[in-house]
What does this fold into?
Amino acid sequence: MIRTLVTISIFTFFLTACSDFPGVYKIDIPQGNVVTQEMVDQLRPGMTRKQVRFVMGTPLIEDTFHADRWDYILTRKSGDGSYSRQKLTLRFENDRLVGLNGDFRPGANQP
It folds into this structure.
């Protein structure tokens, strides 16, 4: 009886340890800020930090050493093993938005 229980336990352990076991659903894992093109299209030079935070949400990184820069980063690992990363950096001067760079461009969806 004990021998059968130990055998089943070991078999179960090895079966669940297999990462490529067929039929196992693997979820997508997003981490960070979700940024859409529509959100970026609402940004205008001269907006205050409060206005930008209302449109974009709280930035993932507010660096103490670079107080005039906000970074919005989204990483996504898909269940199939693929990896993607999106980044948007906003720059401020005198608490006003002066520029952005990264994977999004203002007006990219407009003709």
